[in-house]
Each structure stands twice: as C-alpha cells, then as structure tokens.
Amino acid sequence: MKLPDSLNIEFIRAIPKTDLHVHLDGSLRLETLIELAKAQSVELPSYNPEGLKELVFKDRYADLGEYLHGFQYTCAVLREPEALERVAYELAIDSFAEGVRYIEPRFAPQLNASEKLSIEEVLLAVDRGLAKAKSEINQRDPIASGKEPPFDYGIIGCAMRKFGKTFSPYYNTFIGCHRYAPVSQVFPLASMELVQALIGTRDRRGVPVVGFDLAGEEKGWPANAHRKAFEYAHQHFLMKTIHAGEAYGPSSIFQAITQCHADRIGHGTHLFASDLVEHIPSSERESYTEALVQYIADRRITIEVCPTSNLQTIPSIGEIANHPVKRMLSERLSVTICTDNRLVSGTTVTEEILKIVTAFQVTPDILRDMIIYGFKRSFSPLPYVQKRAYVRRVIDYYQKIEGEFGITSPNSSLYKKSLPLG
Ligand SMILES: [Zn+2]
Fold first, then answer.
1. Helix or strand or coil: residue 100?
2. Interatomic CA distance for residues 31 and 264, integer angstroms
3. Superfamily of domain 9-404
4. Which pLDDT score, from 0 to 100, does residue 6 have?
C-alpha cells in the first residue's frame, strides 16, 4: 500500500512527540561537551566536533563496549551543578525544537556525584535546567495562548547493574565503605542508596522524579540482584522502567517485570529470541516466549524502542528492516520510539520515527497510536485527571496537524485494519 506523500519528515517534525528513553549524559550538544571540557580541564581525544565524531561519537560501533566509550568523557564534564543545569536546559530546548512536547531524561546520579556534590544536588541541578527550559518554552505563543499543548518533563534516576572506577569518583568512595563485601552485592546496595535519595528528593524538595531505571551491562549482572531497591521504589509509588532484552534474552525481560515490577521496558530488542532463554528445556522455550509476549501485550507494558542505538549496539541486526519492532507492532504491543542518546547515536526523535515509518510502511493510524501511547504511558508527574486532559489536548493537536498535512482521518476505512507489517 502506498503511503500518503504527506507522511514525511515535515509531518513527523510537526506532530507532538515524546522521548521517554533519553540519557542526559548521552545527549549533550557536541559543542557544549568541548566547551565544558576546556573550562574544566577535562582531557578529550579531540577538541573539535569533526575529530570527536571520527574518534568517539561514530555512526557505527563495533559493539556495546565501544558505544559506551564516549560516556567517560560526558560523565567527566557533568560533575558540576552549572554543567548539569546547562545540558539539561539544552536537551529540553533541542527536543522542543523538533516538536517533542514531553521528555523523561534519565541519568545515573552516582556517575555525577562526588565528595563535593551529593545525589540530591545532582538532581536539583538537572531539575533547575529542565524547569528553566519548560518555563521559557511555555511562555511562548502559541502555547501561552492555549493553542498548542505545553512542554513538560519528568526525571528518571538510573541505578547501574555495575559501574567502573573510571566512570565515577563516587564508586571509589562507595566501594571503600563496603570493601569486604563481594562486588556483586555492592552494586545492589548502591541502588538502594540511590532509590532512597530519589524518593527523598521528590518528597522533600519537590523535584519531579517520576521513575527508577536499571542500566549498564546486562549479561552476568541480573536485574533481580537489585529487586530490593525496586521493591522500595514500588512501595513508594515510583514508576519503574528497566533496560532489558538489549544484550540478553526474554528471561531478562521476565525478571524485570516479575521481580522488579517494571512498568516499561528499555529496548526489549531480544523479546522474541526464544533461543536465548535459559534454564528451560529447549522444547518449551518457544511457548515460554509466546506467553511472555502475551503478558506484555495484555498488561500494556510499553517497550521503549531506540532503533539507531539498537543497530549500533547489536550489529548483528544488520539493517533496520530486520529490527524486531516490526513484529512488536504487528503483535500490537505498546511501543514508543525514543532516541536513547542524541549525541552518542547521532539522532533525533524525528529521525527515529521516520526510520520506522519508512522501513515498515507504518500507516497513519498506527503511527498515531504509537505517538499517543508515548504520552499515555509516560510517567508524567501530573495528577491523573490533568494528565488525561493533557493527553486529550495532544490528540486534538495531533489531528489538527494531520488535517493540515491532508492526512486522512486515522479512523477512515482506507487505513482501518490495514497492517502491512506482518
Ligand atoms: Zn538506554
């Protein structure tokens, strides 16, 4: 089926969008990274954008390890409140400039903390930057006059499955305090300390911390080691999203959902890879995976798909046409398209959505569902009634844009039941 010509980059840029999976420390402006590094005497392999793109922030990476290499530089310049405030502000401004109306920046405050900067101070600095951008954006017409839905955000704190010395001075302090414990037990303790700080900062300082995440190397560092921290988040009404199924199979996703109460899944790329299921006889792996997919579909557990990042960290996928998002959509899972890292993956929300729309001939109704799901399944800090009203405004605005681009009503018979994805 031929898609309307109007379902193009201009349309995708114009529609209201979310970015629910965007790492603050992977999304700096390149020029800002260089400026901050110079000001703070942080060593970079190059001090011009072209050099850094050639050496660090590439189009293609050998594997997840090479992909993560650049974070040592970005984290190193993000240990001062002014720097955190600035990059948070710029992320919000850059996102809004391409039509993103709601973001949930995530970061691991323990990589930014130091003896001079507490986890709470890290969170406060990021919030100052985001709040400043939000206030500026929402004072502009046509938002101020009520013609367009406003910009908003919520903060997600990332615990780490593990992290290394080079990434964090905090690590040395923390490990030093627990030097007689096996390292596999120390990281879960760090997660517990983080979740308490997140909830404390939310409750005492009014910072919109809306979610708790688990990031870092997946294989060999299971989510269930951190289940007490996630249980604590659960008991304190903090939403949960977990990086799972990126470097490991369906059992990792199962663990995230059943033992850590995940409301959303980061990536979930290997969701259908039944051959990666362990501890189950091979004859039952297929049915186990099917049951997991069914559960995720039924519970509307949203999968945060980051296409470019997935292709970069899992080179075996090859090209976008092979990405499992195709099957996720045809199985009618709740999917939201995100950037992961605007700098490290060299992308934007608009580009990510365009990639999916083009590769899988996503129809206007499926695209609309997917975009609106981003708003519905966000961890918005708004009270529920206000969140519903906000989503309603977004839908109305989305339909107005569709009208302007001559896109047929999403419920028209032309697109009804059309699913050229299977
Ligand atoms: Zn991520």
1. strand
2. 33
3. Metal-dependent hydrolases (3.20.20.140)
4. 66
